[in-house]
Amino acid sequence: MTRSTAEIEKIRSSSAIVADTLQMLERHLQSGVKTRELDARAEDYIRSRGGHPAFKGYYGFPASLCISINNEVVHGIPGERELQSGDIVSIDCGVEKDGYYGDHARTFIIGIVDSRIQRLIDTTYQALLHGIEEARVGKRLYDIGHAVQMYAESQGFSVIRKLVGHGIGTQLHEEPQVPNYGKAGTGPPLESGMVIAIEPMINEGEYDVYTGDDGWTVFTSDGKLSAHFEHTVCITNNGPDILSLPSKSNH
């Protein structure tokens, strides 16, 4: 599906609120903070900007943020757990405003971690950028995942198969699915006006994952760490346009 210029600007507006929310939360990420406190701050901030927390109530999800720690990949439910020095914390956030959605995720460090963990986080972010670079008119959908996979695996990490990125617009999750792996030169052609959420989820160890007893939180099967970054991106005739950047007023 392709979007008009007016629609793309609405998605950009929602996406900027998400980016501003994560930027705001970064100032509060420290040892001893409970994840539910971060969630409450995020919801208040999103609503103050005229947005609605897109995740809250989505298929029954109880919170505004997904907060996933260490060996949790995605969909962690905020609660009484306190962040600890040495944790890595993936925060995924979505916003709906004026009928259009934005989605964005970052992985943060609490305190100091060793170089191996830092390399996992850096690799995941760079894999996202490699994927975004392929989001161009004339390319094909699986060129994105191929670029993510090749980079992550070249650094000794693995790419999750069971979870993928997605189209986004008037719904939080739309077609097409956007895998983080694939064969270059295959998949549907990318067209100007398409808006997709590209979100590498990269594991320190094996790529297998499972869903926990709460029905939401996804864990690495081997208990090793995982990192997650996501941007909402529009494909244009001038190259990829990252919509989920902080608003200029928030810099």
Average of pLDDT: 97
Query: Residue share in helices?
Result: 25-40%
The overall number of domains is 1
The low-pLDDT segments are none
What name does CATH use for the topology? Creatine Amidinohydrolase
Output the radius of gyration: 17 Å
CATH-scheme architecture: Alpha-Beta Complex
* Order of SSEs: HHEEEEEHHEEEEEEEEEE
The helix-and-strand class reads alpha+beta
The portion of residues forming beta strands comes to 25-35%
Which quaternary structure do these chains form? single chain
Strand order of the largest sheet: 8-7-9-14-15
Shape: globular
Provide the CATH top-level class: Alpha Beta
The helix count comes to 4
For the secondary structure, the number of strands is: 15
Kindly, what is the distance between the CA atoms of the first and last residues, rounded to a whole number of angstroms?
Answer: 32 Å
Q: Biggest sheet, open or closed, and with what strands and sense?
A: 5 strands, antiparallel
Q: Please, what is the CATH homologous superfamily?
A: Creatinase/methionine aminopeptidase superfamily
